[in-house]
Amino acid sequence: MNIHRKASFATKGIAMAGIAIGLALPAVADASLLAAAGVCTLTGSDGQIVGNTCVRGDDPGQGAPASIPGGSGRGSGAGVAFGGSAAGVYQDYGVFHGYAAAAGHGLAAVGESGGVNASARGIMRDLLTLGGGSGFGHLTLEWTISGTTALGGYRGASANMQMDVQTATTGNRQGSGNLFIQNAGVYSIANLPFFFGQPIDLTVSSDVVASSGYDEGGGPYAFYAAAHFENTSILTGVFAYDTSGRLIDGITMTSASGTRYPVAAEVPGDPPTQAVPEPASSALLVA
User: Fold this and answer.
1) What is the mean pLDDT of residues 42-65?
2) How far is CA 134 from each of CA 126, 241, 242, rounded to the nearest angstrom?
3) pLDDT tens string 79-88
4) What string of DSSP letters covers 32-93?
């Protein structure tokens, strides 16, 4: 499973499309959490790749931060730093925090090119069962996200957050949706099918990616790209609609993880939650 689907950087004659971070979900539908992060550097000479170094971090099994209201207390976290770049992720049920920062500076020889690709992924899987109605309907899931992206020094720099949602019901009625995010806001995915009283297998994959580099012209270079979503990405809304598109009031929901959805958003003005502290080595990004 590749952590990147859209973000990449390309120097003259060299392209780098991401870090392969293998996160395999259990074969049996159940509640589960996974997290991984990675940073790769690439160098080239006259259009040929001459060096490619990757470091990665895997789930160390951190507990949910107490400052996240509604947190389940069962979480996955991972972080990694390499040179001036870093990536980190924290995944809980309905809660995701992630950042990726790619940075570098130096003096390139004529014909030399290169760059950095940093990324982090969290995956949550849960079984949801809705009550309070009968028959078939559609869900809309809504996330409250605070964060931003920053780019500089290279025309091909890229930074974003991506979310992918997959659902499956009894009888293999499937739903899906994806989001491409670069700024704070409220984002939703609609038309996810469900049946009252029957489990919905929900999988949410969240990625943060940042990549940048330098060309073959030679001389001094400096670049950075950052996707800062380490404070908040929380599933704050779950809405059920009937086949005519009318909102169904009074639904109940149970989950295999024991999590109560939707998860409460952090109160504005509270100190920001940062479950995976960003290494000091990436402090140059704020320059």
Assistant:
1) 80
2) 21, 12, 10
3) 898 888 999 9
4) EEEEEEEEEEEEEETTEEEEEEEEEEE---PPPPTTSTT--S-EEEEEEEETTEEEEEEEET
